[in-house]
C-alpha cells in the first residue's frame, strides 16, 4: 500500500484526542482535512496580498489578481482542461450543477425532451435536474442500479435503452458517495455524445482521489468541491467546454461580469468572467490551488491506490461482523475509498454516537441519497470513508468499536 | 462511557428492543407524519380521539434507538390523556431533554435526561412527540423536527 | 477623531512596503483588510474543528455545526435581526441580490409591474433587477440623482412620483460606493411600504462601517459582503424577513435543503436551510462572526465617526488641488468614508499607477457604476476609501502623491 | 520611479497631450469600437479602406495616457498600410508590450516597451489596435480587450 512518510504530520487537525481517544477521522466523504500548506496559503494571502481582483491597478490588487488567475490556471492543469477560461469558480459542486441546470437547462430544454440521471445520484445532482425538467416541461428519467445491494452498479443495458435522441442531457456521478461505485464515465460520455446529449459529471468524490482528465473523459460539464480534496470550504469548480460556455447566458449578474451597462440593458463578458458575478472567493481559490499542488506532489494515482486498498481491507475486516450488510461493489470489485454498511437491529445514528465515544468519526444517515436508500430498502447506513492520511490501524480501531457497539445492543 | 450510559438507559434500550403500540392503528381518526431530514428518521403517529381524550394511540417508522424508544414511551404516556395534558407532558419532556433536569414526579420520561448532553440527538427524542402534537391539532402538514426547532 | 491605540497592529497586511514605500491602503471600498483575530478564526477552525455540518453526529461535526450556527446567531445580533433563521449565508452581496431578484422576482413580478432602483446603484444591485424585469415583463425605473456632481443625492421629489402602487420592489443602496452618499434608508422603506412595495437594501458599504438595525430600517431584504467588513472573501449575508422567506421558493437545490426526495419530487426545509443548498462555506462564516466581534469591540458608531472625519479631512486637503472635481456630497454634508474625484487632463488609471509608486493603493475606474458615470459625464474617477485603520497622515501622503502626479503630467 | 519613467516615455506623454487623427473620420467605410470593461476605457476606430489599403484612419474615445497615446500612435503607423501589414505591425507591437523587447528597426512603437512591467496596463496599450483590426475585418461585434485576451 502506498504511504508517504510523515503525511499525517501535514494535517494539524489529526493530532487531537476526541473523548479521550486519538481522533480516527473516517468521514472524508463528507469533507477532507486540510494540510498545513493549504492553511498557510490562506494566512499568507490575508497577511500579504489581500485586495479585490480584476478592477485594480495597485500592487496588492495585481498580486491578488495574479494569485486568483494563477489558481484558475492551476486547476485547469489539475483536470487537464484545454483552457483556463473553462474553469469557473463556484462555492462547490452543488452550485456548479445548479448553474448548469438553470442556465443550460433554461436555454435548451423543452417539452418532450428527456433529462437523464442515475439511480445513485446525490441530491445535489438529482434535485436541480428534477427542477429543470419541471420548469421546462421535459421528462426526468434515471438509470437504475443493479443488485439487491447495488453491487452491480448501474444497469448498462437499461442505459442503452434510455439513451434515445430525446435525451438532451445526461447527468451522472463519477463516484457514488454512498456505494463507492466508480462509474465508467468516459464510456457514458461517449454513448451520450452518440445521441447528441450533453454530459454533466458530478466529480465531488473523484477529483481529489485519483487522476482526472476532462478531455479524456470527453464530458461537457464537470463539477466538484474544494473542501473534499484538501481545499477550504466555500470554493469549488464548474468546468465547462469553452464552446458551450460562450453560448450560455449568465446565471447570476452584477459587477465584474459585464462589458457595458446602461440603465436599460447590459452586455456580458465571455467565460469565465460571465459566470463569476461579484467579488469572487479569492483567498479560497488560491488555497485550492495549493491543495492541487499538495495532491499532485503525493501523486494522484498513488492516492487512488492507497484509498482503494484501505477500502478492501475495511471490507474484509467488517464483513465478518454478525448481521452486517455491506452495500455497493463486492469484495475484490473496484470501489473507491469508502464502505457503507448497515447492521440488523442497530441504527446508524446509534453506531455513530458510540463510535464517537471511541474517537472514530463516521457518518450515519441517508448521505443525501434518499431515493437510493429507498431502493435498497434502508433508511440509513453507516459510512466509513478514507483518504490519504488514513491507515490500516485506524480501520482496526473502527472494527473494534463496531464489535463493542454490537455487544452493547445485544446483537453480538 | 458514562455519558453514553446516561444516554442509553435501560428503559430506552428496552423500548427500542420491544416497542409498545407499534404499527398502524385501524381505528385512528387522526394521523401525522414526522421526518428528521438530516438523518432520515421517520415516525408516523396514529391516534383515536374520543371527544377531547386520546382513546388509543400507536406509532410506526424507523430511526435510531432514541427516536424509536421515545415514540414508544410517548404512546404509553399519552394514552387516555386530553390534548391539553399531552401538550403539558411534551413541555415537561422537552425540558428534560434540553436541560437534563429529571422530572419532579418519578416517570419513565426521566430516562431521556441524558439526551441533553448530545444536542444533535434532541431532534431524535422529540420526533414522535412532534408528530403526536400535529396529529392532535389535526394539522395536515407533515411534522418535521426541522420546522419545529428546539 | 476616535482612534484606538495600536489598532494597526491588529492588521498584519498593513506592515509592508510597496515599491519601497510604506503601504497606504485606501481601497477599502473594494475590500477591507483582515485583523489577526479573523485570520486566527480560520486557522483554528481548520486545525481543530473542520468537518461537514448538519448531517454529522460525531464530535468534529457537532463542533463545526455549533460554530456555523453560532456565526449565524452572531450575524443576526450584528444587524439586529429578529431571528437567526433570517440570516442566509451567501458568497457576497451580489449573490444575495441575485437570490432575491430571481426567487422573489420570479414569484411576484408580472407585466405592468414596476421594479424601482436608483441612479446610483452598483451593477450588482442594478443588472439583476434589469434582468428580473425583463424576464417577467415588468418595467424597470430608477430614481435620478440630483446635481451636476450628484452632490444632491437622490431626487426625493421624483421618488414621490415614482413610488406608485405599481411598484412591486424598490432596491436601493444604503451607501453609494462611488459618491459616498448615505441614503435615508429607513425613510425609503417607510415610503415603499406605504405603496406595498418590497424593499431590498444593498448594504455592502454600510454594514461594517456603522451601526445597522434591520428592524429599525424596516426593510424586507438586505444584502452585504463579509470581505468589506474585516471578514474573509467568499462569505456574505442575505437577510430576509422570516414571513417573506418562508413563502419563497428556493433558488438553488441539492443536499441539505430538502426534507424528502424521491426520483420524482422533493420538498424543502424552511429558511435558512431552504436557501443554503450544498455544503456551506463553514470556515468563512465562522470567521465572519469573528469580524463582527472585532468591529463591535471597537464600536461601530466610533468607526462611522472615524471614517467620516477622515473623509472630511480628505475633502478639505484634496479640494485645493488644481483642476480637481470631487463628486458626491459637498464639504460638510454627511458622507461615508470615501472620496471620488477626477482631474482635468489626467486619467484615473494613470493616477492609480503613479500613486502605487508612492505606496498608495487607490481605485480608478467606473466603480461598477457605468450608468452613474455617464450621468456625470465621466468615464472614470479616482477613489480613496477609508476604514478604521487609516490615519490623517495617510491622507497627507495621498495628497502629496497627487501633487507629484499633476506636476508630472504638466497640469500643475 | 525608473519603471514609471520607462512606462510614461516622452513619446507617450506627447501623443497623450496632442493626439493625432482624433475624431470621427467622415469618409470612413469601416468602424469598430473597443471597450476595456475593467476600467471603462473606450476607443472607436474609423478607417477608410481604399481597396486593400488603409486610405485614412482616426480614433475617438477616452482612457488613460497609455491607451490614448497608443491609439494615436497607431493611427500614424497604420495609415497607408494593407490589412496584412497592419496585422504584422500589431504582432510586433504586441511582442513589445508583453516582452519589453524593443523592435529591431527604430520605431516610435518601441516607446511602449515599458508597458511589459505593468501587466495590468497591457490591455490599455492594445485597446486601439484591437479596434483597428476588428474594423479591418469588418467585424460587426464590438472589440473588447477582454474577448481578445493577451
Ligand atoms: C454598493 C455595492 N454594492 C454591491 C457590491 C458588490 O459586492 P460583492 O462584489 O462583494 O458581491 C459592492 C462592492 O463591490 C458595492 O460597493
Ligand atoms: C457525490 C456528491 N455529489 C455532490 C455533493 C455535494 O457537494 P457540496 O456539498 O460540496 O456542494 C457531494 C458531497 O456532499 C457528493 O458526495
Question: Could you explain how this protein is built, in words?
Answer:
The complex is a heterotetramer, with two copies of chain A (412 residues) and two copies of chain B (150 residues). With 412 residues, chain A is of the alpha/beta class. Chain A has two domains: 7-30 and 300-408, Alpha-Beta Complex (Aspartate Aminotransferase, domain 1); 40-296, 3-Layer(aba) Sandwich (Aspartate Aminotransferase, domain 2). Chain A is built from 13 helices and 17 strands. A seven-stranded mixed beta sheet of chain A has the order 4-10-9-8-7-5-6, sandwiched between helices. Chain A has a four-stranded antiparallel beta sheet with strand order 13-14-17-16, with helices on one face. The two termini of chain A are 32 Å apart. Chain B has 150 residues and is of the alpha+beta class. Chain B has one domain (2-142): Alpha-Beta Complex (Sufe protein. Chain: A), CATH 3.90.1010.10. Chain B is 40% helix and 19% strand. Chain B has five helices and four strands. In chain B, strands 3-2-1-4 form a four-stranded mixed beta sheet, covered by helices on one side. In chain B, helix 2 crosses helix 3 (65-78), helix 3 packs parallel to helix 5 (122-136) and helix 4 (83-99) packs antiparallel against helix 5 (122-136). Chain B is globular. Chains in contact: A-B, A-C, A-D, B-C, C-D. The complex binds pyridoxal-5'-phosphate (2 copies). One pyridoxal-5'-phosphate sits between chains C (92-94, 122, 124-125, 173, 177, 202, 204-205, 225, 368) and A (255, 278-279). One pyridoxal-5'-phosphate (PLP) sits between chains C (92-94, 122, 124-125, 173, 177, 202, 204-205, 225, 368) and A (255, 278-279).
Assembly of the depicted chains: heterotetramer
**Whole-number total of structural domains of chain A:** 2
Based on the coordinates given, report the CATH architecture of chain B.
Alpha-Beta Complex
Structural category of chain B is alpha+beta
Biggest interchain interface, per-side counts: A-C, 92 and 91 residues
Briefly note the structural class of the backbone of chain A.
alpha/beta
What is the CA-atom radius of gyration of chain A, in angstroms?
22 Å
**What do the pLDDT scores of chain A average to?**
96
Total number of helical segments of chain A? 13
